[in-house]
Design a protein that fits this description.
Blueprint (H helix, E strand, L loop, with lengths): L1 E6 L4 H12 L4 E7 L4 E6 L5 H10 L3 E2 L1
Antiparallel strand pairs: 1-3, 1-4, 2-3
The protein binds copper (II) ion.
The site of copper (II) ion (CU) has 4 residues, from α1.
Length: about 60
């Protein structure tokens, strides 16, 4: 499992939005947000372009680290 720190996620809607955005990135097999930790946890089926993943999360208003 890979972990990406994401700031700005506060509620179940944020969680769902980030999981959906991450799920659209090539190579992301599954994505789950840990709201308490402020982290996106994801599994790779192929190497993920982390810059593209971060850009997708920024585009919906969150702040990946
Ligand atoms: Cu929210």
């Amino acid at each position: 499992m890979k972990i990406l720190k994401v700031n700005g996620m506060r509620c179940p809607n944020c969680k769902a939005a980030v999981e959906e955005a991450a799920g659209k990135i090539a190579g992301v097999a599954s994505a789950q947000v840990d709201l308490a930790a402020g982290e996106l946890h994801y599994e790779e089926s192929a190497p993920v372009d982390v810059a593209a993943l971060k850009a997708a999360i920024e585009n919906i208003g969150f702040d990946p680290q």
